[in-house]
Amino acid sequence: MIDIFITTFLRQDFTKKSIRYLKERTKTPYRLFIIDNGGNEYFKDDPRVFLYIGLSNNIGIHAAWNLALSLVESEYFVTSDPDLLVPDLDPDWLEQLRDFIDKRKDYAAISLHPHIFIGAAGIDPNDPEDVKERNMCGAVFRIMRTDVIRQVGGWDHKIEEGRNNEERWISSRIHDAGYKTGITSRLRAYHMFGENWGYPEEFT
Asked: Tell me: the pLDDT tens digits for 19-46?
């Protein structure tokens, strides 16, 4: 059983779709936690959700992931943004991702490859190597070693501005502890888009 955490803020439609794909495409046992920084209780009674945490104010992604870390009971745990859809694979994406990190004791975090280049520039999906080492991996259904993330103290305890701040923070701490981070070459997640998210106009 692997604990999966999705943190969301006012993205109910994206989160709902992400949960549906997760349920339909994951055979490996997991527990799903939703941390809702918007606190609207949209997923409070969703039977697919093991635990819903509705916060009365936006505590920020760093604090949300630290909250997730305090709840983990599995050897590995998965963190993800709410705007991602897992691929339909056999064996399923989670079994493959778990096998990748099982075989790589020097890695503490491996994320799925987003279908766009952001965060995964230069990774060829035809590369025979399953995981490509990168200096940073984002919350794209990212599997992490619970003991290592606790060892490094988790995330910063204050809200930081700027895109990818969370990824840079935790990846740098992982590297300081002597571990690697990486992105899968062929396991690709679909990244949904919303208006005014700061992406180039040609991204659709």
From this structure: 999 999 999 999 999 998 876 777 888 8
- The pair of three-digit structure tokens given for residue 108, joined into one six-digit string: 């503490």
Which of 45, 1, 47 lies closest to 20, judged by CA? 47
Residues in a beta bridge with 161: none
User: What digits encode the pLDDT tens for the residues 103-127?
Assistant: 999 999 999 998 765 555 677 778 8
Q: Residue 4 in contact with residue 22, Cβ under 8 Å? A: yes
DSSP helix/strand/coil, 15: helix
Task: Check if the beta carbon of residue 175 is closer than 8 Å to that of residue 136.
Answer: no
- Helices (H) then strands (E): counts for the chain: 5, 9
Residues 79-89 pLDDT 10s = 999 999 999 99
Spatial contact of 65 and 155, defined as CB atoms under 8 Å apart = yes
Instruction: Round to whole Å and give the CA distance between 198 and 21.
Output: 25
In which residue are the tokens 């890695």 written? 107
DSSP string for residues in 134-156: ES---SSSEEEEHHHHHHTT-S-
Question: Whole-angstrom Cα distance, residue 187 to residue 82?
Answer: 18
Q: Which residues pair with 144 in a beta bridge?
A: 77, 109
Cα 126 from chain centroid (whole Å): 23
